[in-house]
Design goal:
Layout lengths: L2 H26 L6 H29 L6 H14 L3 H33 L6 E5 L2 E5 L9 E4 L9 E5 L2 E4 L1 H4 L5 E3 L4 E2 L4 E2 L4 E5 L7 H10 L7 H32 L4 H14 L2 H20 L2 E3 L2 H8 L1 E7 L10 E7 L4 H12 L5 H16 L9 E7 L3 E6 L2 E6 L1 H6 L15 E7 L2 E9 L6 H10 L4 E5 L4 H11 L3 E3 L4 H13 L6 E6 L5 H6 L2 E5 L5 H6 L2 E3 L6 H36 L4 H20 L6
Parallel strand pairs: 11-18, 11-20, 18-19, 20-21, 21-22
Antiparallel strand pairs: 1-2, 1-3, 3-9, 4-7, 4-9, 5-6, 5-8, 10-22, 12-17, 13-14, 14-15, 15-16, 16-17
Helix pairs in contact: 1-2, 1-4, 2-3, 2-4, 3-4, 3-8, 4-9, 4-20, 7-8, 7-9, 8-19, 8-20, 9-19, 9-20, 10-19, 11-12, 19-20
């Protein structure tokens, strides 16, 4: 419990004690001179102990032109109760209202805890290495290319490449995963991870503002700005609902006794009940709290949502479109076959590796790694210094000049685009991705690179089907045979192959036009080259946000790990949160409407009104807190 919450609790307990004394004087002690005034004074003391700040806020609201809020309603109703002689009820309304505020503060604190634990990943300092010595400085003062030391137990302050040391990195704060990641020289160190053992020397590759941890925290901090339709509805509803209720209460207090005759006291009492019931705090508090709890619960699972609007949209999703590489498959390619034409296998691998040496594409990296491994076996040095004029040809491949030769490496479309003549007996690979290679305008052969399906992909897709997802589609740039072979293993019948990035957008737009009204479509990609499709979908979900700037920037929802099994988890959390939000809306409005009618007809008293306001608010808040425990 926070200091502020403890202070509020003490104030409530003191008010309850004084209220008990007031009740003792009023109802149990025998009459004595001035008993009525003493009783009133003690009740007033209890009232101002419990609700002095509420009255002050109501007066400030009137002064600032913001009249119709919950403080105004509570102050008006309770002061009115004192005027009609209902002292105990006036005090108890304030005490119970403050108890509701305490529950709200506790629930919000509980929800924030899951977010704040994520916020604690921000490192406080970096150990900068200069002239063989280390000194602690702010991460903001470290530049790209500097070397930092990360000791056991410290957070990695900035993204970089490990140059010395071996260790295990705890990524739980970022991914929700309990198993540490083993790292050594040459591996990437991600900011926000905790170094569990061995000292690491890291060469910084990103400044503090561009680091993974900064991007994640910016995303989380801005999540509350993007409100769901249900939240916007409640905000608009409260804006018009409260003044309407106040006007109705005034009418109820004065019009019936004027028309029907009789005393005003009974009708004013009904109107006061009406005001207490009408306070919309159960809705205004519990609905945003439910969404906040859902976002916090998802964050604990390594699923970051950029706003409650995306959580709401995810709950309506009934179609998923997947990129293949890095999403359904590992993206860890391996060269499996070489089919040279009029050159040796070694030369074919060498020329391809030289052309791909400056590319960050997973296929290019696998070819370069295979060439390095071959050089090691042959006790040769694989040099990439003699490579120039590298040109990335989006959707086709790469062109480069190496060893005074023009090298083309890419797909079949690249060969046709450059008018490369292919032999009639060209080797066709039934599985994997084919990289076609030409040297100085002459076809030099084909390299087969294959990818592996992630261990949990099949079970994740099956779980999505069982959860009511009606359509699962795979889009890939792979050739038809490879794409269909992977789709068959995954049990996907709807697959589109040999697609350029623009083709993926076209296919996605066609699928969007076929979506039923009120349903959403999600695109799931690895965030590296899927930004246009992620942006075009109803919801863009990026896999493997850990270390991927593109994923965090382009997507609406980021799965921090590379696990497709997190998708059914995200769906369950989104649907569970929306179920809780709907329960709160129906329950709060239903009880309030019922008690408002009873109050107007004279069948309700202040205690029933208190339950309809504070009681419903507390129950709705407790229900909202369930969103934190959704799995």
């Amino acid at each position: 419990m926070t200091k502020k919450q403890k202070k509020l609790l003490k104030k409530i307990l003191l008010a309850v004690a004084v209220f008990a004394v007031a009740c003792l004087i009023s109802f149990l002690l025998p009459d004595f001179p001035g008993k009525q005034w003493v009783s009133l004074a003690v009740f007033l003391a209890a009232y101002f102990l419990a609700g002095g700040d509420i009255v002050r806020k109501a007066l400030l609201g009137i002064k600032n032109g913001q009249v119709f809020d919950e403080n105004f309603l509570m102050a008006l109703a309770t002061v009115g109760a004192f005027f009609v002689g209902e002292y105990p009820e006036g005090v108890m309304v304030m005490i119970l209202f403050q108890i509701g505020e305490l529950f709200q503060a506790y629930a919000v604190g509980k929800s924030r805890k899951s977010i704040s634990s994520l916020m604690q990943i921000r490192p406080d300092y970096a150990n900068l290495i200069e002239n063989g010595e280390t000194r602690e400085i702010s991460p903001e003062k470290v530049s790209v290319g500097d070397y930092i030391l990360v000791k056991p137990g410290e957070k990695v302050p900035l993204d970089g490449i490990i140059t010395e040391g071996n260790s295990s990195l705890d990524t739980a704060a970022l991914t929700g995963e309990s198993l540490p990641r083993e790292v050594s020289a040459g591996d990437t160190a991600i900011s926000g991870c905790i170094n569990l053992r061995g000292t690491l020397t890291v060469q910084v590759t990103k400044t503090s503002s561009e680091s993974t941890v900064s991007k994640i925290l910016d995303m989380v901090e801005n999540a509350s700005a993007r409100k769901a339709q249900a939240e916007n509805f409640i905000s608009r509803f409260a804006r018009y609902y409260t003044p309407v209720v106040v006007i109705l209460a005034v009418i109820l207090a004065f019009v019936p006794p004027i028309i029907l005759g009789g005393g005003f006291s009974d009708w004013i009492y009904r109107a006061l009940n009406f005001l207490v019931v009408s306070c919309p705090c159960a809705l205004v508090i519990s609905v945003p709290l439910g969404f906040f709890g859902g976002i916090g619960g998802a964050a604990k699972q390594g699923i970051l949502m950029k706003g409650s609007n995306y959580l709401e949209a995810l709950a309506k999703t009934d179609a998923f479109v997947f990129d293949k590489t890095g999403t359904l498959t590992k993206g860890n390619f391996k060269v499996t076959k070489l089919a040279p034409v009029d050159i040796s296998e070694t030369d074919l691998l060498k020329y391809t590796a030289l052309a791909e040496s400056q590319s960050s594409h997973p296929i290019a990296i696998s070819i370069v790694e295979e060439y390095k491994a071959a050089c090691t076996l042959l006790s040769e040095t694989g040099s990439f210094s003699d490579v120039s004029d590298v040109e990335e040809l989006a959707g086709f491949g790469v062109r480069a000049i190496a060893e005074e030769k023009e090298i083309l490496a890419g797909n079949l479309r690249l060969m046709k685009e450059k008018n490369i003549s292919l032999p009639a007996d060209i080797t066709e690979f039934t599985t994997g991705t084919a990289v076609y290679v030409a040297v100085d305008g002459t076809f030099a052969g084909t390299i087969c690179v294959e990818d592996e399906i992630k261990p949990d992909t099949v079970s994740a897709l099956e779980t999505l089907r069982n959860s009511g997802i009606r359509k699962l589609v795979m889009l890939t740039g792979d050739k038809k045979a490879t794409g269909e072979a992977i789709a068959k293993k995954l049990g996907l019948s709807d697959v589109h192959t040999e697609l350029l990035p623009a083709d993926k957008v076209t296919h996605l737009e066609e699928l969007l036009t076929l979506q039923p009204s009120g349903h959403t479509l999600a695109y799931v990609g690895d965030g590296i080259n899927d930004a246009p499709v992620l942006a075009r979908a109803d919801i863009g979900i990026a896999m493997g946000g850990l270390g991927s700037d593109a994923a965090i920037e382009a997507a609406d929802i980021v799965i921090m790990t590379d696990e497709p099994s997190k998708l059914p988890t995200a769906i369950r959390i989104a649907r569970g949160t929306m179920r809780i939000v709907r329960q709160n809306i129906v329950f709060a409005l239903g009880v309030k409407v019922l008690v408002l009618l009873l109050s107007a007809l004279g069948y309700s008293n202040m205690w029933m009104a208190i339950f309809a306001d504070v009681g419903v608010c507390v129950l709705a808040i407790l229900n909202s807190m369930r969103a934190l425990r959704l799995r």
